[in-house]
Structure formats: structure tokens, C-alpha cells
């Protein structure tokens, strides 16, 4: 980045133009964009490939030796210098500030951890308060640095490439012999311009969400944890015995509950890296260390199966110790720290919900399909809420009249539609499929993406799929009028991606996936007829059902990777579980007794009622157990390994008793060997 502007300035000087152009082309050819995240979009790959295309063009232009380039400084050098000084310079300053705060925080923390527990309580509380203030400041500085680095990397995609494109366009106008070359370059130039605009739109469209997320993370740091494959990870001080006493060595530790493996990596603060060899042990037990038994605070003892003696560890705080002990099932009270950050909305996917969405779509398509900035321009919040209250009124919601009064502006109607979708208890495309949709968008070619998303859509519950189909048909109609309303498929993806496919947990990693949420919506709009009107090309295999799982040639039974939204808490006692089972059985027995006479007198067997009271649902429903039919049996089609205590593990061919619908979409409840738990709905068939 530092070499490109000086070599570009040398190109403008007119001295040894041929040599300068070759060097400039070489710099562009060697330049590589660094991708934040685990995948790139098609637009980002196009932009990254553009520098090699530019280098080829410059080498061809070298043969002409044309020396006159007008306005090159304005369109090329100035923007690059401005970007380097303002953006990269700011990132460097943020890095210096972050390094300084890191050193300060670690120093204060080590002093704090060396405080004796025998000091006065007031002194300890004062020290804790001071460390909390420093920790909060360090946390804010860290977030600002991450945010600035992410901003610079995103801006490079368009603020670095776009001036180069303008410079090349200027060359074409002045070079008579470059006319034919410009014609050859034109197709790629069009594709690149679209990619730059799409990247800019995604950046501008998601910037406010990134800032909002950063603000939430500053206010509630404990509620926004990074998604990790480990049950628990972080820094711990491990007591090591020496010849003349003991010492406390800082380690980065990870713990995996399934395998009970604890990995300890010595960490050297000065070098910022490993300070020795890794050590892994298998957990046997974990016990809280009483304060009066050791000089240090926040300590706990770990016993290992494959290592003699006791390992004493010191956490960074009382809360940190509680989390470590909770992860290791230690002898410490377990508190349920999983909070439902989603307040349940009043919106539902029922006949009223379908009626509201249909009325909004009808109003938009008949009165405002050509309005510029459709769905991007928001309405006044008070007016939006007032319209929603009218539409959601049960007295008027059931009316079949499709027209919304002309007094409501189109921007108010479009905002009401988006707000209603956000008011649903969960996103329309469901939390448990969010990661699978994102991974489908990251596949290498477009055909694979469409195929995987096609399969995933047909795994959604019926009402979700119908509502999504209704919405995508409408958005395709909006995109078809993009010349008038300026809302292309990419723009609609930016608007609806975070609404339809928001993640359940707001993390820094979620920032990187926002652009892939948009791509999923783009694919749904562009391929809505195929996705919603046809079944997937091939039967859904275990691997297709779980895109988040690694594919292998072994016929390894898949685990249930899509978790339900709410799990039964493992901290419940056996008594509560037995009470819950007795309530289910008693309710089923009452149903049996109340219907015994009608069953005995009936000449035909009792069948589940498949008639829906919802007139908006026209697609044939799959066979589901009726809530009034007790003790249905089901047979497993695939094997499944439980990933939570509330689920059942089973092999293909297993028969379940007492199978009935669960409150969790896509899951059933059943009994196997006397244990009641959750079963994936698409893994079984009813007998």
C-alpha cells in the first residue's frame, strides 16, 4: 500500500515513463487483498482480481509510449494519499494506543492478583474497583482498534481500487490506439464497477449495525462472547512448585467438556507468545479453593486422571472462576447465565400475520413499485407504529379487504412490513439454520450455493417457507423495476439480510458474516421460482441436512448440529424432570379417557386432523402427529448423536414411543428407554 502512490507519482512525472509504467504494473500485480473472515464474496474476489487485470492493461499500453495524462493527479494520487494518511494513519495510531493500554492493563492486573487476601476488605474492594475501571477502558480501546482495522480493510475494497479505475478510464480517452484495448476491457470494467458499488452499498448499509453492535458490546461486555469450539477458554495462573517455593505462571487454557481435556499453554507477556510446551490433561475433578487456605484469591484445584497431584489455578476474577468451575462441573453453585436477549414480539406467522404482509405488498405493488429508494427510505416511527396497531387489531385484521388507505405513505407501509418481520419471536429463516445459510453462501460456485440454499429452504417450517416465498416473489417484482426505484437485487439484499437472517448471538464474528446474509437474500430473489416451486434436485442426505458438519468419505452418523432455540436447563433436578413427565403423561391419559367412548364406537381408526383453519396456507402440509393423538410411535431414518442433555442419541432404525410436537420448531419430543427428550423432526418417520 505504501509503494503504490510513489510509483504512481513517478508515472506522472514524464521521466522514464516506460520504466515507471512497468514498475507500477508490477506493484499492482503483486498486491494482495487480505480477507477478514473465512471466505470472500464474488464481488470481493472480482475486486481482488482487478489489480492483475490493471497490470495487464498497463503492460499493453507501454507499447504506445503516450506521455500526456491529464488530471491523473486528481483522480489517482490525491485519493490514495488521502486514504493512506487518514485511514491507515488512524489505524496505526489506534494500534499504538491499543499496545499502550495492553501493557498498562496487564501490569495493573498482575499487581492486583498479587494482593494478599489478608488485607482489609475495604482495600481489596478499592483495588477491585480500580482494576474494573482499567479493564473497562482496555476493553473499549480494544474494540475501537478492531473496529478501525475492519473499517480500513473494507474501505480498501473501493477507495483504493476506484481511483485506479478512474485513472485507467482517463488513459483510454487520450490514447487513440487504446480504443481497441478499452473495448476488450469493457466487460470486466462493467463487472468491476458493479462489484465496487455492491461492496460500497454493503459497507454503507451495514455500518450503522456494526456501530450499534459495538455500542452494545461496550455497555454489556459479558453478554457478547466470541463463538468458540471450546466449552471454556482464557488466561489462568497455574501454581508451579520450585526447589525453593512456588511460582505462578501465566497460561492460556482451554477446556472441552466432551473429552474432558484441559490444554495449558505457557504464555510470555513480554514476547506476546508461547513460553514453553503445551500440556494436556484429562479432568477428574474440580474444587473451589477456600480463601483462608491460600494467599491468592480466585483459586480452584483441579485433579487430573493422567497426572498425579493437584493443579492449583488462579482465575482473573470471581466471575471468571465461577465460569471455569461451571464449565468443569466443579463443586460450586451453578447459575444459569443464558439470558434470552430477545424480547418476544406480538407478531406471529398466523392468519393475521399473512394478512398484514399481503396488504402491505398489495399496497406497494399497486401504488409505489416505482418509488425511488423503496424499502431503503424509512418512515416516521410514530406513523409506522400507528399503522401496525391498525393492521394488528383483531377486529380488523381478519377482513379480506386488501387495500391500505391511501393516506398512508409508501415509506410508512414498507417500514411497517420490515418492522413486523423483526417483531416475530425469531427471524423468518430461523436461528438454527442461520449458520447453514451463511456456509452455503460461502461455497465456491454459484450453482452449489443455489442448490444448498434450495435444500435449506425446504427444511424450514411450512409457515416460514410460505411467508418467505410470498416475500421473495414481491422483492423480485421490486427488483424488476430497479431502473425506476433504484433498488437492485444487491440493494434489497442489504436491506433484508439482517432482518430475515439475523444471528442469535451478536458477536464480532457476526460482523464479518453480514455481507453473506445479504448474498443469501440475493440468491433467493434471483432464483425464487426454482427454489420455492420445485423440490431439491436430490434427496436430502445427512451431509446436506447439516452443512455445518465436515464432509468425509466415512459413513459417520451425523450429530444434531441445529440446536433448538430454547433448551431444557441441565441444572433442573431429577424431581422437576419427573414432575414434567408426569404432567405430560397425566394430560395424555385425560385425553385418552375423555375420548375412549368415541374411539370404541367408531367404525374407522382415529386419524390425525390435517385440515388447517388458516386460509392463507395453500401448500400441502407434511404428516405431523395430532396433538390429541397420544403415544404415536416413530422410527429413526438416520443416526444422531445428542449434543445436549435435553436431546436423545439414537441409531438408524430406533423406534420411539410417545412422540408428539415440541414447542421448538423443527423438533419433536419422544421417549426412548424410559428417557424423554428432543428428536429432530426430519430424522424420523411415523409408524
Structure keywords:
alpha+beta; Substrate Binding Domain Of Dnak, Chain:A, Domain 2; Phosphatidylinositol 3-kinase, Chain A; 4 domains; six-stranded antiparallel beta barrel; five-stranded antiparallel sheet; 21 helices
Describe the structure.
This protein has 21 helices and twelve strands. The chain has helices at 4-12, 17-30, 42-61, 72-113, 121-174, 179-219, 318-327, 351-367, 381-391, 394-397, 410-423, 434-441, 446-457, 462-480, 482-485, 489-500, 508-526, 528-533, 542-545, 574-594, 596-601, and strands at residues 232-242, 245-256, 261-268, 273-274, 279-288, 299-304, 310-314, 632-636, 655-661, 667-672, 675-680, 684-686. The strands form two sheets. Strands 1-2-3-5-6-7 form a six-stranded antiparallel barrel. Helix 6 (179-219) crosses helix 17 (508-526) and helix 12 crosses helix 17 (508-526). Mean pLDDT is 76; it is low at 332-345 and 539-629.
CATH fold call of the largest domain: Substrate Binding Domain Of Dnak, Chain:A, Domain 2
Strands, count = 12
Biggest sheet overview:
6 strands, antiparallel, barrel
Walk across the major sheet and give the strand order: 1-2-3-5-6-7
**What portion of residues is helical?**
40-55%
Low-confidence stretches: 332-345, 539-629
Superfamily (CATH H level) name of the largest domain: Arfaptin homology (AH) domain/BAR domain
| Overall outline | globular
Strand proportion: 5-15%
Report the span from N to C terminus: 65 Å
Rg computed from alpha carbons, rounded to a whole number of angstroms: 31 Å
